[in-house]
Structures are given as structure tokens and as C-alpha cells.
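Example A, followed by Example B.
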Amino acid sequence: MDTTLLLAQIFGPLLALLGLSILTNPGLLEKVVKLHDDTAILWVSGLMTVALGLLLVLKHNIWVQNWTVIITILCWLVLVKGVVLIFPFTHGPIIKFGKSMSKHSWIVGIHFLLGLYLSYMAYFA
């Protein structure tokens, strides 16, 4: 449980701040998506994300029926994202999704709410 709380203390504020910063800066996501035009940046960030994802999954792979499974799912999503970023043929769909995500603030709102929930569970529950 100590690892779960630590990861919730990291993921919670991170997701909440990510969501809040994108909601309050409407043009920010479009600028970030433009960085994805460089496949070398995507590849290097993919390698780093795979390393982080492997570390997270190896440390927290707990499938239970309570709120801590959210942490496990986030760990696996980090790993999957890293693997996807390594392969150049996936970059087109990634850029397309990033551009469409900037038009759908509800997705960013989910990040914010999930961050608040994890922060609550990590610090106050």
C-alpha cells in the first residue's frame, strides 16, 4: 500500500495540474501537438516512457477491486504509450488524436477530476 499511496501522491497532483493548465490555456495543447512533428522527439520520448512504464508496472501491478486499480491502469497506460511512441507508423494517428483532443475539453476535464480523486485518496482518505 505504501507504493500505491506514493504513486497516487504523484499521479494525483500531476493529472490535476495537467488538466487545469490545459483548461486555462486554450492554445497550449496545439503548441504541444506541433512538437510531435519531429519523429526523433517522439522516439526518444517513447524510449524514456517505456523505461518509466516498465518501472511503474514492475513496482505496482496490483489488480484489486478498489480505487488502487486506477494506479495500476495508469502504470500500464504509461507503458503502452511508450511502446506506441517508439514505432513511427503510429505517429500519424497520435498527431491526429492530439489535434482532436484539443477540441474536446471534456477529456482534459477527466484528467483534472481523476487527479483530484487520486489526490483525495492519497492525502485525505
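Example B, a separate protein, is given below in the same form.
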Amino acid sequence: MNNKLQEKILHFQILENKIKQIRQKEQNVLMQINELERTKESLDQIKESDSMIPIGAGVFVPAKITDSKHVLIGIGSGTAIKKTADECKEILNNRIKEAEIVLGNIDKDAQKIINELTKVQAEIEKLQSKK
């Protein structure tokens, strides 16, 4: 196998790995959007009542929801602020919009790499046919 063909094959493999990484990022962002949407839906269902709060590993603590009109929302660095449910939904909507922008950028990056993959594949086939 000549050096040019080996270089193209290596380049193709690198591009394939990049596409896999981009698809993984895409899945992570889609899961984040899904979680944000579910959280918005949950805000509509909160009512003052007895509840079970998950603390991890399938363990729950009994709790009483005494204020269903206000929630705490994380704003980063381990900090949470008190907001009304409607204010919280607006923050979640903004986070969804930001995630959708990221998703659009990921799609653009993926398309560039797919186009390059197609080009490199054609070059590989051309080099292989010269044998």
C-alpha cells in the first residue's frame, strides 16, 4: 500500500472518530433538552402534598410540599435561587433555546465532517483503483 493511500485511510479513520464524538455530544444535548422539558411538565404537576424526595441510589425521603408556588432553581456553582414556578419555566425555556442553538452548531459541525468524509472516501477509492 502506498503512503498516500495510507495517509488517506488514516485521515478517514480520524474523521470517523470525530463523527462518533459529535454524535455523542448530540445525544447528550438531546438528553439535556428532554430533561428540561420533563422538568417544565413536572412544575405544572406540583401541588401541596406529601411526597417522596429521591436522594440517590433508589433511596427516598418522605417530605411535605408546603409551597407549590415557589421552587429553587440551580444557577451554577452550587447556588440555587427561589423563583415562582412561572419564572422557573421561563428560565428552563431559555436553557432549552440555548441547548437548541448548541444542537444546531453540532449539526453544522457534523455536516462539515460528513462532507469531508465523503471527499476522502472518494480519494481513497480513486487511489485504490490505480493499483
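On Example B: The domain at 3-45+83-129 is CATH 1.10.287 (Helix Hairpins).
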